[in-house]
Write the structure tokens for this entry.
Amino acid sequence: MLENLTEMLKGVLEGCVLEIISRKETYGYEITRQLNALGFADVVEGTVYTILVRLEKNKLVDIEKKPSDMGPPRKFFTLNNAGRDELQKFWEKWEFVASKINQLKEEESNV
Amino acid sequence: MLENLTEMLKGVLEGCVLEIISRKETYGYEITRQLNALGFADVVEGTVYTILVRLEKNKLVDIEKKPSDMGPPRKFFTLNNAGRDELQKFWEKWEFVASKINQLKEEESNV
DNA sequence: ACTGCTATATAGTAATACGTAATAGTTGGT
DNA sequence: ACCAACTATTACGTATTACTATATAGCAGT
């Protein structure tokens, strides 16, 4: 596919994780699989877990540990109010930045 | 305006600078002003100059120093072939990432 | 036992935007 | 002559973030 999106994912990956968690209670491994399915094929567990640790440290998520019959226990994440606020701010920033970049892209070469 | 876009600008600011240079020969200070006018109000000279140094180091630009009647001499930048290739790759990456993020944003909450 | 899939954790690295300050040329006002 | 304001570049240090690599561990099938 496309090579090395890593720099372009900075600042958006955390927002994607917030969005995925907001849909339904989920856990790191599954979040990684969803990001891969979305098209971000090179995102690995390690990356997602560091984001989840950050979300926890910033008190944006609630956490519940549950057993699994597929392997070791899972840590399920849900957004709390602060997390929902952060997610909304993320989308506002994204709207702004994406619109400006697209504006730059579509502008005629106006000398 | 919006607070702290810095993380979201990582990975796209260099592409914006490439695009701006591709329009017409220009220099650091003017590029900064154009980015500010675009809406990225908090981008400062220091940030743009580090990007320009990087572009030079990666041999994506040609450089010509010219006197100015407004102040110190200016270093004018133009894209070379490698720079144009890099710019095209940037837009391809942007299209990909932006489309995926928007897809995530617009998806119905599909449990 | 071994392999493979599921699942989490973490120490270290690289890349990048930003803060800040120094330097310097030109213009205009006092 | 001096100073402020604007133009213009350079450089050092910092913070944030995604990635690499590795370790640990549960469960299923062979």
In short: Chain B has a mean pLDDT of 92. The longest strand of chain B covers residues 61-66.
